[in-house]
Design goal:
Pfam families: TetR_C_13 (PF16925), TetR_N (PF00440). By secondary structure, the chain is mainly alpha-helical. The chain contains eight helices and no strands.
């Protein structure tokens, strides 16, 4: 494959994330992405070997940015890790109840769709979610150390449970088109995390589309 033009490749990825976030992966044609990215029609294979290869890069790039955002949140000074984790869940809710599709979680949007269709994309999802869970586990451990969290199980196990809880919650919010699943997930999350801090939670973005 030829060395891609960074600007054209980036445009394809950025517009691709927005369109795939709205429609899913299988329903989106390459020409639609290329037109939105203002890249000449038929030139897709100058940048990616296949649609699956594009999907892998799309997911890897998405998780790179996602993990960077998590790290920035968890590194904020002046907050306990209980507060940081609750802010993380609030950001999750805001992302899934917002009005745009560009920022939607691709793990939620594509997890069930592509895992049975593309092994390379499944592995990209596995890599990305593992990185997310690892950061959650680190924050959980630091919460124990700063005294804001109390739980008995290993941080790695709890991080996996919490991520699975919120992944499933996001799907249920789509099905019900209400924020009720998020309210239930927040309640259970607070019970699992322990501690005595009370997070400020709001639902002001509509329903979980």
């Amino acid at each position: 494959m030829n060395h891609p033009s960074k600007s054209a490749r980036q445009a394809i990825l950025e517009r691709g994330q927005s369109i795939v976030g709205a429609k899913g992966f299988s329903a989106v044609g390459l020409n639609e992405i290329l037109q939105a990215a203002e890249v000449p029609k038929g030139s897709f294979y100058h940048y990616f070997d296949s649609k699956d290869a594009f999907g892998v890069v799309l997911l890897d790039t998405y998780f790179d940015h996602y993990v960077q955002g998590m790290q920035a949140l968890f590194d904020q000074p002046g907050l306990s890790h209980h507060a940081k984790l609750m802010r993380y869940w609030q950001c999750w809710i805001d992302n899934h109840t917002g009005c745009t599709d560009a920022g939607k979680c691709l793990a939620v949007k594509l997890g069930a769709e592509v895992s049975d269709l593309s092994e390379p994309m499944r592995l990209a999802l596995l890599r990305g979610t593992a990185r997310t869970i690892e950061l959650l586990a680190v924050s959980l451990q630091r919460g124990v150390e700063d005294g804001s969290l109390t739980f008995e199980q290993a941080p790695e196990s709890l991080a996996q449970r919490l991520y699975a809880l919120w992944l499933g919650t996001s799907v249920m919010a789509k099905i019900t088109r209400t924020t009720a699943p998020f309210a239930e997930a927040l309640l259970l999350t607070r019970q699992l995390l322990g501690g005595s801090e009370n997070p400020v939670i709001h639902f002001d973005r509509g329903t979980g589309k």
